[in-house]
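The following record pairs a protein chain with its ligand, (2S)-amino(hydroxy)ethanoic acid.
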Amino acid sequence: MAALGKNLRIDGDRLWDSIHDVAKIGPGIAGGSNRQTVTDEDGEARHLFQRWCEEAGCTMGVDQMGTMFATRPGTDPDALPVMVGSHLDTQPTGGRYDGVLGVLGALEIVRSMNDLGIKTKHPVCVVNWTNEEGTRFAPAMMASGVFAGVISQEDAYAKTDADGKRFGDELARIGWRGDEPVGARKMHAFFELHIEQGPILEAEGIDIGAVTHGQGLRWIECTVTGKESHTGSTPMPMRKNAGRGMAQITELVHRIAMDNQPNAVGAIGQANVYPNSRNIIPGKAVFTVDFRSHELDRLNAMVERLMAEAPKLCEALEVGFEADIVGQFDPPAFDEGLVQSIRDAADRLGYSHKDIVSGAGHDACWVNKMYPTAMVMCPCVDGLSHNEAEDITKEWSTAGAEVLFHAVLEAAEMEG
Ligand code: HGY
Ligand code: MN
Ligand code: MN
């Protein structure tokens, strides 16, 4: 394998321009992005991405979950590809960089390999995973979850959004339901570049995060059932208010997380009351608890405490309680050899770096169950993400992509 010189750089301006070209598709109302999975906007961004990949000499394949694989050939036709990617779908009030940096950073690697005339033994394959966010259709990391065998394709197709539309139908409607069986593609290694979505790297003035572990996640969908009745004429002692159950469980979730500091988090981000009328006491409340920790025992203990205490709160309010796990993964530990190649690349390129645990979930967390996987992180302003004000600098974007470039060239075995 040829030596990786510190002169091997990417074109940071080209990457920055590509990111902001994609940001024009499915813009948010406050400067961010609203390009939710398998919407028309997602479809439009996919077409642009495919055109760019083909202009860079890649061959595009699409699997039955719509995940896109753009392959740059290697010199050894029998060598498994090094895959690099992330996701182009966004939150409804998302930022321009979450996911997009990882997909276009991977494309920039291919573009730079072309510019520099680099050959590698292993093919390099740029990946856009379908439905990483899991907002419109739960769970998060859906397509990579089907790829890793943790959710069936049939169950994924049957998931419905708030309007009752099925994921499988929407994927077909936008024309991105491919033919390839999901999981048929094997890989030598997988890398994902992502913004940190937390405050550590920026606060400590560090350029690069070498991600050693991720937090585990539990999404528990809770249903509290009371009795609809008039908010004006129903005497207080007669009320069965599902909204009060949700309120007390919201506080319980916060208390459980606070009792597990500093290594846990918990919140309720999605909540609906029914019938949601100003003068009807809520007969039902449906909401999702999001617990996370990089310590598996702690995560499981948090869920157990919720399942022990929430029913008691609801019993005292004379309302019913049911719960169902709608998304989960255990804390992943990434491949130490690949993580070391990220540290080495940062040193070679003159970037500061530190080991870090990913607070957010990523497609890499599922791919890591199947193949050697690692993540590169760059800082983001104020650690803010899943907010239209999410922001990074061109310098951070460039540094992250250059470290990714070197780690990928090492794994793909650059030749001459
Ligand atoms: O939920 C997550 O951590 C990811 O952003 N989908
Ligand atoms: Mn993401
Ligand atoms: Mn996200």
